[in-house]
Write a structure and sequence with these properties.
Elements: H1 2-16, H2 26-48, H3 52-86, H4 92-123, H5 126-150, H6 152-160
Length: 161
């Protein structure tokens, strides 16, 4: 577990140490996401240390997962960017709908992770599938936290504290 956390922390520190005050454009989010996905795959490979047989069965499941994960993250990024751009002009009803959409996104992400865990558990072992999910949860927590911190309205609130 320490190795997993070290790998994730190292990746995050190396990748996300940037000025947090600058607003990120949608294009920049896309570049961050693509780079994040590549770096994440490298860390998963390094931490999991697959043998050839495991790699042959794991990576197709992982690639499909990441395709679906990317769709969910794109939706979340779009929503966050849109809310950042319009936050001061959003009505209470619009704000509530946005938060409800985040909840739905979280539910969909959890469903995808559960489905993927079951698939990984079938092609590897329950223990190896659990290792992968620990890595996945660590990445998810860091990424969602980073995305939220970069949201303009959070930054404005943090400045007031």
């Amino acid at each position: 577990m320490k190795k997993i956390l070290f790998g994730v922390c190292f990746l995050v520190a190396a990748f996300f140490i940037r000025p947090a005050s600058a607003q990120i454009t949608t294009g920049q989010f896309r570049i961050i996401r693509v780079s994040w996905e590549f770096d994440k795959k490298v860390v998963v490979d390094e931490v999991m240390q697959f043998d050839e047989k495991e790699a042959d069965v794991f990576w197709p499941v992982y690639d499909r997962y990441m395709k679906d994960w990317g769709r969910l993250m794109n939706y979340r990024i779009y929503g966050l960017q849109k809310s950042c751009d319009n936050f001061k002009n959003m009505s209470p009803a619009t704000t509530s709908r946005f938060i409800d959409q985040l909840f739905v996104n979280d539910i969909e992400l959890t469903k995808l992770q559960r489905k993927t865990y079951k698939k990984v558990r079938k092609v590897l072992s329950p223990m190896r599938a659990s290792q992968f999910m620990q890595i996945e949860y660590a990445f998810q927590l860091v990424l969602l936290s980073e995305m939220q911190q970069r949201a303009m309205f959070v930054q404005d609130c943090m400045k007031k504290l």
